[in-house]
Design brief:
Structural class: alpha/beta
Shape: globular
Number of strands: 9
Radius of gyration: 17 Å
Helix content: 25-40%
Bound molecules: 5-O-phosphono-beta-D-ribofuranosylamine
Strand order of the largest sheet: 3-2-1-4-5-6-7
Distance between the termini: 6 Å
Oligomer: single chain
Length: 214
């Protein structure tokens, strides 16, 4: 079997960080060839920062509010990512718009995960339980998970992976969210692994996945 060099990943998260935890577990259990080199949060109370500290990963509370200007904030973000040696950036429940300067610096190397099948049920305001409530209110029979490249808008970057999840008759937002979350925890690591294996080719909005090399 071919040995794969672990890819250096920086994660941004604002909340509990269950996707970050899943990534770290998948690394520990050798299902993912990656190293999390930094965790950044706009929220000092984020569970994700606590998890990072428990794992001995550099954890940074960086919020626009700590800085006098957008420029100073963005410079620090970029420096933090560069110093950590980040090759790939993953947004895992990051509730802030990523500054365009950082998006550009990591063009086609920044991912987000969204708990619906984009382009449906995405965009500003559609996060957390709002997504699932909207899916249920529409009467959808399926929802799903999208891992996509990040561009300068909310949830509009090209999809890398999508996975359908059924909506069950007696679902509420909570039960649907829980079913989706178990898929998220697997799919995000699979997406990162594709980058580790250098199998991602971006052609405009079509993101091609090359076959695995034996
Ligand atoms: C996930 O549902 C993810 O799809 C969305 O935000 C949520 C983050 O959850 N972008 P967690 O903080 O990883 O538990």
């Amino acid at each position: 079997m071919k040995t794969i060099e672990p890819i250096c990943v920086a994660a941004f998260a604002s909340g509990r960080g269950s996707n970050l935890t899943a990534i770290l577990r998948n690394i520990e259990e050798e299902r993912l060839d990656a190293r999390v080199v930094a965790v950044i949060s706009n929220n000092s109370d984020a569970g994700a920062l606590q998890t990072a500290r428990e794992y001995g990963i550099p954890a940074f509370h960086l919020s626009r509010r700590q800085f006098d200007s957008d420029e100073a904030f963005e410079k620090t973000l970029l420096q933090t990512l560069t110093d950590a040696g980040a090759e790939l950036v993953v947004l895992a429940g990051y509730m802030k718009m990523m500054p365009v300067r950082i998006v550009r610096a990591f063009k086609n190397r920044m991912l987000n995960i969204h708990p619906a099948l984009l382009p449906s049920f995405g965009g500003q305001g559609l996060y957390g339980h709002f997504v699932h409530e909207a899916v249920l209110a529409y009467g959808c029979k399926v929802s799903g998970v999208t891992v996509h490249l990040v561009d300068a808008e909310y949830d509009t970057g090209a999809p890398l992976m999508q996975c359908c999840v059924p909506v069950l008759e007696d679902d509420d937002a909570e039960t649907l969210a829980a079913r989706l979350l178990t898929v998220e925890h697997q799919l995000y690591s699979e997406a990162i692994q594709l980058f580790a294996e250098k199998r991602v080719i971006v052609e405009g909005r079509r993101v091609r996945i090359l076959p695995a090399v034996e």
